[in-house]
User: Fold this.
Amino acid sequence: MNEVFDACVAILIWIADLFEITYKEANIWIFVIIEPILFIVMLYKIIKQRREIKLSKNRK
Assistant:
């Protein structure tokens, strides 16, 4: 488990260096801003697809 954590920290440090921001800023961008937005978008798409599948089954 320590290896996975260390790899994740290394990736965050790499991202921080790439965008010239701090490790903490990279962490905030990924886990507080980007991840929730992606979750909401995926949830919307899942709900939309379920409705489309339900409608297509009802038409048959």
Q: What stands out?
A: Helices lie at 2-19, 23-59. The chain has one domain: 2-59. The mean pLDDT is 95. Residues 2-59 form one domain.
